[in-house]
Amino acid sequence: MADAGNNEQGLRLLGLHVSPFALRARMALSLKGLSYEYIEQDLFHKSELLLASNPVHNKVPVLIHNGKPICESLVVVEYVDEVWPGTAILPADPYGRAVARFWAAYIDGKLFPAYAGVMKAATEDERTEKVRETHAAVLKLEKAFAEISSSGNGAAPFFGGDSVGYLDLALGCSLPWFGALRAMFGVEVIDAARAPLLAAWAERFAETAVAMEVLPEPDQAVAYAKKIQAYRAASAKK
Ligand SMILES: N[C@@H](CCC(=O)N[C@@H](CS)C(=O)NCC(=O)O)C(=O)O
């Protein structure tokens, strides 16, 4: 739960309300029931605090714990999981953790650039190609979900088993953007015909307490996408 000021753990999070990466960090903090000071960033005018806290990438999220910055969303999620007991986020066994990290890297390396590319495409041909790449990545994740969720006792509802875990956060943080792609371009990222298991997972995930508490509505992502488009158009004219 984000709060405006002091919190017992000395936690501050630099984020952006629609950043899927920042949403991952927020969901991890929420799963652990931690309160923190949330500091929204303006990425068009980066703050001194952001530049000083993440001098390498200048990106959100940054978690600041007792004055020490932790950068990169998956690193933040793992840090939160290691430092605070309670609901476990990563799988308990090393193999499960290795598999979860592999697919989280796949989401960031393949799925994210593909669907962000749909948003950014300059031509319809480019957009069609990025939609194809997005669907190819979703298909791979559909198979991964089938394997991971059937590796325990029967078919589990989440990547994390009976409850939400690392991969659920890694993928679920993008749901607002999938909604934005549907609204803006009619693109169904996880469509039930191609990826029935993931489509059902997405519905379940959206109804979890952590998703309901943290994830914004897709129209906020649409509004932000339009802001970026306007900024790019203005920069191109200069
Ligand atoms: N790999 C990073 C990606 C973070 C990222 O791309 N954040 C974006 C917002 S969604 C950002 O801060 N962009 C600012 C910039 O590119 O200058 C992570 O997982 O934390």
Largest sheet: 5 strands, mixed
Overall, the morphology is globular
- What's the pLDDT, averaged over the residues? 95
Residues in helix, %: 55-70%
Q: What is the number of independent domains?
A: 2
Structure overview:
The chain has 238 residues and is an alpha/beta fold. The chain folds into 2 domains: 2-83, Glutaredoxin; 94-223, Glutathione S-transferase Yfyf (Class Pi), Chain A, domain 2 (Up-down Bundle). It is 58% helix and 8% strand. It has a 5-stranded mixed beta sheet with strand order 1-3-2-4-5, with helices on one face. 36% of the residues are buried. The model has no long low-confidence stretch (mean pLDDT 95). The chain binds glutathione (GSH). Glutathione binds at residues 16, 19, 21, 43, 58-61, 72-74.
